[in-house]
Design goal:
Shape: globular
Distance between the termini: 37 Å
Number of domains: 1
Order of helices and strands: HEHEEHEEHHHH
Structural class: alpha+beta
Largest sheet: 3 strands, antiparallel
Number of helices: 7
Strand order of the largest sheet: 1-5-4
Number of strands: 5
Radius of gyration: 16 Å
Helix content: 40-55%
Length: 168
């Protein structure tokens, strides 16, 4: 099955068949791919963490074929964001294998999701756990404050992506 079809199914698997934010969608797909989600988007590290141009292209395709409707809005801070709403035709029964993980990701705060996906990207790039934490703190700065970093690492653990710390 093509990437775009899995992406449509993922959006449809959210409450109300809706994902608020392209950034959220990027981070969810990144983490789900680490769990075996059958898409093969390539990611590079950008300001908000892992980013895939291919994923955005597929969102445009999904909108063109009517499986997803994307609208934009402006936050109270004046920043634009996108709302992706899947049509009922986007639902995909095969997505159920990932239901528990999708639910965990959906419940996660945006900053926690951003930190978790960025940590995971650093690990994918070959960083051990401790180096990934150092790089994460350097890149994300105050976003790591409070309980955000701890919550991100707990999300990584809950998803089953926790590194084998005995090897480092």
């Amino acid at each position: 099955m093509e990437n775009y079809r899995w992406l449509a199914g993922l959006i449809a698997a959210h409450q109300g068949r809706k994902v608020v934010g392209r950034t959220r969608l990027q981070k969810e797909v990144k983490l789900l791919q680490s769990l075996g989600f059958p898409t093969d988007y390539s990611y590079t590290i950008h300001f908000y963490g892992p980013y895939s141009e291919g994923l955005i292209s597929d969102v445009d395709l999904l909108e063109a074929i009517g499986l997803v409707d994307e609208t934009s809005d402006v936050s109270q801070e004046g920043k634009p964001y996108y709302i992706l709403k899947a049509s009922p035709d986007a639902e995909l029964s095969e997505i159920e294998e990932f239901r528990e993980s999708i639910d965990k990701l959906e419940r996660s705060a945006a900053v926690v999701l951003e930190l978790a996906a960025t940590y995971d990207a650093f690990r994918d790039a070959g960083a051990d756990h401790y180096d990934a934490i150092v790089r994460l703190r350097r890149k994300k700065g105050s976003k790591c404050d409070g309980s955000n970093l701890q919550d991100a690492l707990e999300l990584i653990e809950e998803l089953g992506l926790w590194p084998d710390l005995q090897c480092v």
